[in-house]
Amino acid sequence: MSLDPRAVLTRPAPEPEMTVAYGEHPDQIADLRRPAGDGPPRPLLIVVHGGFWRVEYDRRHTGPLAAALAALGHPVAQLEYRRTGQPGGGWPGTLSDVLSGVTALPRLAAAALPGQVAPARAILVGHSAGGHLALYAAARAPAAVGGVLALAPVADLAEAYRLDLDAGAVAALLGGGPAEVPERYAEADPRALTSLPSRTVVIHGTLDQQVPVELSRSYVAAAQAVGADMHLVELPECEHFGLIDPESTAWPKITSALRSLLEDQQPLTHRRRAGRTPEGRTAAR
Q: What is the mean pLDDT of residues 91-110?
C-alpha cells in the first residue's frame, strides 16, 4: 500500500460497465459494476462518495472501493449527486438527489444487470460526507434501504459546523449555521432525525484528521439510547482514507461488517438453516 493514504483518491480502477440516470441533471447518474462470478443475485450496494459535499470531489475516487466490492460478487452502483459549488447543489438539491438515487437505483440496476440484482432493499456504503448522506437517506426512505455501512461519517452536522470541518463545509451545504437555519439542521442532521436508519454499522479510524471519531461515538451512543440497531467499530491506527482503500489493513473489517449487513437481508428460514437466528450478530457487532 502507498505510504500516502490519499493515493486511493487518484488510483486507477477498472471502468464501470455502464452508467444510468435517475434524473435529468448530468450529475443525477450512477455508475454500475457487474458482480464477478456466477453466483446468485445479491442486493445492490450503493456507494455514496464523500468530499465534504463539494463539487471538487466526485464519484470517481471511489472506483477502487467499488471495483473491489464487485470483485467480491456484489452488484455495485456508484451514486453521483449535485454538490456545493455548482447550480442546484447544497440545500436542498444534494440531499434530494441522494434520496431520489437511493430510491430509484435498485430498479434501474436490476433492469441493466438482469439476473444479478436481488429483489431486496439496497445496502448503502457511505464515506465521510457520503456517510452522512447514507444515514440521511436510510432515515428518510427506510423502505428502500436494508442497511448502512457508514465509514467515518459526518454524523453530527451541528458539531461539524462548530468544529468548522473543511473550512465551512456544513455551512456551504445548508446555507448557514444551526442558529441561522435551524429547520434545515432538523431536516438533515442525523443527530436530529427522529426516524432511525436501518441496521447500521459505523466504522471510524481513531487517527482520523478529517472527521473526528468523537462524532461517530456520540452519534452511535445517542442512537443506541433510543433503540437504534447500530454498532460502532473503532479502528486503531487507521486514518480517514484507509476505510475506502481495498489495499489498507482496514479492508477485512469493512468486508466483515458488510457481510453482517447482508446476512440480515436473507430470509428468516435461510438464516435458521445456516444456524443464525434473527438476534445473531457477527464479530463486526
A: 98
The Cα–Cα gap between 228 and 226 comes to: 6
Ranges of H-type helices in 113-212: 129-140, 157-163, 169-174, 182-188
Q: Which three cell numbers stand for residue 219?
A: 452519534
Distance CA 110, CA 43 (A): 10
- Tell me if the bond preceding 92 is cis, omega within 30° of 0: yes
Report percent pLDDT > 90 for the chain.
88
Q: In the structure grid, which three cell numbers stand for residue 39, read together?
A: 453466483
Spatial neighbors of 179 by CB under 8 A, at least 6 apart, are none
What letters, b where the CB count within 10 A reaches 16 and e where it falls short, cover 219-253?
A: bbeebeeeebbbbbbebeebbbbbbbbbebebbeb
Give the whole-angstrom CA distance, residue 77 versus residue 1. 25
How would you list the strands of the sheet with 145-151, edge to edge? Answer: 18-21, 29-33, 76-79, 45-48, 122-127, 145-151, 200-205, 230-235
pTM for this structure? 0.93
Alpha carbons 256 and 88: distance in angstroms, whole number: 37
E strands in 145-276: 145-151, 200-205, 230-235
DSSP for residue 17: S
Closest CA to 75 of 108, 49, 99: 108
Bridge partners of 19? 31
